[in-house]
Write a structure and sequence with these properties.
Blueprint (H helix, E strand, L loop, with lengths): L7 E5 L6 E6 L7 E6 L9 H12 L2 E7 L1 H4 L8 H16 L17 E6 L1 H8 L1 H4 L4 E4 L14 H5 L5 E6 L13 E6 L9 H15 L2
Parallel strand pairs: 3-4, 3-5, 5-6, 6-7, 7-8
Antiparallel strand pairs: 1-2, 2-4
Helix pairs in contact: 1-7
């Protein structure tokens, strides 16, 4: 298991204020990169995000954890989905070298296959932006199918609309529900709830196993 060393941190302009990216480069020849977003009220140091980052680095991927502009500005209440998606797409464009006006991080991931992911709200952003961002796979940690106690308010269209392979790592007792597996969607159930804190090593193993089978 890789110790998660400190990240290189920089800010990237977006239409809704600067986003902050935490970049860790694999020491190996990169096979691609995994970009992940945080949950609605949390940050990029969530245990499951760090576990997924370790797995990705060990698999030969660069890892970029993306802080949305509302968090960079010190707000806890999440921005509307359209703003979250626009900020994500701006970050991807700069890192790919296809958008923005240069600056730090510009073109860092140029030419690499990209996977998107995140926990909870960040997983929803990854799913919604998969097609426009050209992601080759999606890693969802604790995808929130519906608000607790409100199964009729489901968001399955977001994850059902993804056409590339998807991994979902979900707590067995998650009050936000869980997606069902499909031909292209693998669902790994772990002990615990929405936080995925009960067995963090199992989160890392699930992500590592899936990446090893789905990377080019």
């Amino acid at each position: 298991m890789t110790n998660l060393r400190p990240a290189e941190v920089t800010e990237i302009p977006t239409p809704h204020g600067p986003a902050r990216v935490h970049v860790r480069l694999t020491p190996a020849t990169p096979r691609g990169a995994l970009l992940m977003g945080h949950g609605a009220g949390g940050g990029v140091d969530a245990p499951d995000l760090r576990a997924a980052a370790r797995a990705a680095l060990d698999t030969g991927l660069h890892v970029v954890l993306v802080e949305q502009p509302y968090r960079v500005a010190g707000r806890r209440a999440p921005a509307p989905a359209t703003q979250l998606d626009a900020a994500w797409e701006a970050v991807v464009g700069v890192l790919r070298g296809t958008g923005g006006t240069g600056g730090e991080g510009a073109g860092l991931l140029a030419g690499l296959p990209l996977l998107f992911g995140g926990r909870s709200s960040g997983a929803r952003v990854a799913c919604r932006c998969a097609a426009t961002g050209g992601a080759i796979g999606i890693v969802c940690l604790a995808f929130p199918v519906h608000p607790p106690g409100r199964p009729e308010k489901h968001r399955m269209a977001e994850i059902d609309g993804v056409t590339v392979p998807v991994l979902v790592v979900q707590g067995e007792s998650d009050p936000f529900g869980r997606p069902e597996p499909t031909v292209t969607r693998e669902v790994v159930l772990l002990p615990g709830d929405h936080s995925l804190k009960k067995d963090v090593p199992a989160v890392e193993k699930a992500v590592a196993d899936w990446l090893s089978r789905h990377l080019p």
